[in-house]
Amino acid sequence: MFSISRNILAGAVLILTMVPLSHAQNVPFVKKHLYSETANPTADIAAALKQARAEHKRVILDFGGDWCGDCQVLDIYMHQSPNAELLAKHFIVVHVDIGQMDHNVAVAEKYKVPIKKGVPALAVLDAHGNLLYSQANKEFENMRNMRSEDVTAFLNKWKAHPAPTPKA
């Protein structure tokens, strides 16, 4: 009997994770592994900054967890056009796992991201690690009720400006 109940519960969870979310209803929802519990965000951010300096890009810190449906929707929107192209041209993205709001808390605090207010939560750094933007008021916490265009506007606002061309 227990195994039947467990199978029914597992099936219900599977069905619920495939149910489209509000504005994301035209997008198939497949849960992805985005946030590594064993990653070293300090090292990941340092590597991203090094790459950002070399490529004249900015770094987006994406705080969240694989369990977070809104984080999954943000990832879907980030992979849609024109967002995917904007990200590739202007940003390096670092996913920072927050566990159950109790993992990598010091990293979130360093970048002034109040993860207790909800995730996904974003910060934007310039190529030298200077904090340009820190989500303070749950701006992306309700991604399921936002649109891909909201992400586009954010990326356009914070994209890196092209490197100056040397004068001849």
Number of strands: 4
CATH topology: Glutaredoxin
Element order: H for helix, E for strand: HHEHHEHEEH
Query: Helix coverage percent of residues?
Result: 25-40%
Overall pLDDT metric: 85
Overall spatial form: globular
Oligomer: single chain
Describe the main β-sheet briefly: 4 strands, mixed
In CATH terms, what is the architecture?
3-Layer(aba) Sandwich
Radius of gyration: 18 Å
Number of continuous helical runs: 6
**Whole-number total of structural domains:** 1
Gap from first CA to last CA: 80 Å
What does this 3D model show about the protein?
The protein has 168 residues and is α+β, with helices and mostly antiparallel strands. The protein has one domain (2-158): Glutaredoxin (3-Layer(aba) Sandwich), CATH 3.40.30. The protein has helices at 2-18, 41-55, 69-78, 83-90, 105-110, 148-158, and strands at 58-64, 91-97, 121-125, 131-134. It has a 4-stranded mixed sheet with strand order 2-1-3-4. It is globular. The chain starts with a helix and ends in a 10-residue tail after the last helix. Mean pLDDT is 85; it is low at 1-25.
